[in-house]
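Archive entry. Fields below.
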Amino acid sequence: MSIQSDAPVAATKQESRRPAGPTKAQLSEGKRAERNLGLLLCAPAAIIIVLVTAYPIGYAIWLSLQRYDLRFPAEQTFVGLSNYATVLASSYWWQAFGVTMLITVISVVIEFVLGLALALLMHRTLVARGLVRTVILIPYGIVTVVAAFSWQFAWTPDKGYLAALLPDSSAPLTEYGSALAIIIGAEVWKTTPFMALLLLAGLALVPDDLLKAAQVDGAGPWQRLTQIILPMMKPAILVALLFRTLDAFRVFDNIYILTQGSNGTGSVSMLGYDNLFKAFNLGIGSAISVLIFICVALLAILFIKLFGASAPGSEPSGRR
Amino acid sequence: MSEPVHPTSRRARRRPVVVGACAVLAAAAIAGCSSGATGPPVLNFYGPADGATQYSAAAEDCTAASGGRYSVVYQSLPKAADDQRLQLARRLVAGDPEVDILGIDVTWTAEFAAAGWIEKLPDDVAARVRQGTLEGPLQTSTYQGSLWAAPLNTNTQILWYRKDLSPTPPATWDEMIAASERLAQQGLPSYIEVQGAQYEGLVVWFNTLINSAGGQIVDENGRVLLGQGDAAQKALSVMQRVAAAPGSDPSLSVNKENDGRLAMEAGTAAFQINYPFVYASIHTPPPDGGGGGTFIDAQGKPSGTDTGRRVVDEFAWAPYPSVVPGQQARPTIGGINLAVSATGDHRDLAFEAIQCLRNRDNQLRNAVEGGVPPTLADLYSDPAFQAKYPAWEAIKSSLDNASVRPLTPAYTSISIVLSDLLNPPAEIDPETAVPVLVDQVEGAANSEGLVP
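PREDICTED_STRUCTURE:
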């Protein structure tokens, strides 16, 4: 208790002392105290996170190494990595993986382009700025499942206003290509505002003076965008693309409502769900979940490698 | 400087916490009281949302009939079968003592029994349940020679057709396909409506056809018999031809029970394989039913003008068409079985209660008000039942020749795999499909590999 009440004061003192040319011994002593205090303050949160996330993840990994089907409780045994071998050898996994990658790549690209356009619009709006921003954010505020249901009705023959625009007796949700396009459309509609919001934050990093100077030097709008705005926004772009890619890779709600994964439109998350909650096969289902986790981790690493030092959390020097 | 601020702010923050803790404790105390209350033990009866009105009424009647020894409360599960199964499984795996009686789909009996989620019927109860109950529904309640549930109601399909388009009903699938092609050539309504979408209904169709041709998908011991003989090939050939015939419904591959009913009521279908609810629907004007109000012209085509003739006037029924001429078809049966949870606290009372819930009166109410055929044989000669089901003879004959879906714990996996492989039916290659089906069904039956 006493430590906590003193803490802010001590921290502030340390903070204010730092930039003013430090004496080494003093700093290291103060710094140590500061670090200990920091660890102490973080500990409760860290412990809770470990309890809430590490335990289920560990349990899922343990389950994925078992033959464990709820319907055959007597047959539960440790089988090592054979569930992973089964999943990776299955055409259902690769089919779902392909669909997931397709949805991820196409929807993130479209969202990025649209999101950037919306962010520029929001950034440059002079009149009714608050209203424009609110209107753009509405889709993101709607629950995904609710939005998915409204898309489903819209595309159902005889009921939907969008299906009515198509030639008679076409049921777009029942064919692979058109169903996938509708799923991607629903994803894009829903999350473009999120992308725009993250990019808008990045746009604020671009100093107006720099743009004006460039304009004086004769740079056109396209050059200003590609030579100044986008490079300056790199950290924000990384965050936006990373968040959305990881999100899109785990796509579930829209597919669950729109097609239930029929006609080959199931994502890896749908596959995991079906094996866990329809086949009650905890071993295989957990192996699929762990594989999804690994894919997501690999994607995150790939992004940070590609974008290098501008990754969030890296040293401030990298951020210019 | 900050000294005076801290104490007050801390106290202010603590107060809601204290209040919240009190609320939680109070709620726990109340919950504790209610479960330990005096009065007869409460038996929770979890069952499907469809028919909840009738099942609740039965629960009330049985509570009254118990003379104060127990009370049954109906707890409605979701509408969709998958959701019902998942919710029950979650409760049972967690050992929920509040689940006493389960109303489960006939195809889950083996699965729930093998998993140890339900209790085998004691011998005396089993003997009473067998008495007067139809053979097919009893078979769905049987796993490894013992009765694990009591059949509550059943369901079966027959052929519904337009007697103006086909004066004599087709006796076989071949005749029906030929009739449909002929009607298509004449430009008349020609669709054969059957469940072709990628779901359980498609597996029901396949199961009926393969059994009618003398085959079986999987036997009681889990052995895959799909590849034996030519029954599977015959069944697949029928499915492929129905879906690919010139006069077939172009959206057959996404059609479920309701789509078939609608096509018949709209006058575009000549034949329909469906459950008895279509009779009630075509005779009930909207909005409660679909109504058979569509006008048809002299030739039988649907018409926008008042011709004085309506679809409902030509609506008739016949036994399910056979696959092998001269051999009666073996339609797959559905329905609900009553089982006693292995996790409940009052299992003896629950066994008593399930006998009451499926007694004559309650089954008759389910049949007349809920539209589901009963499992007690003598109800089929009851005038009240016959008045509600003019097609009762065809229904009874379907039930007497019934086939059941594989009685194996892995049935759900088998069904998922089959519905994936058989859809769309028009693209089945009967010559080459059987080995693939055998391979995939074997994996599913042993719970090896993935389900799509």
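CURATOR_NOTE: Chain A touches chain B at residues 5, 8-9, 69-73, 86-87, 90, 92-93, 169, 171, 174, 261-263, 266, 271, 274-275, 277-281, 284, 288 (CB under 8 Å).
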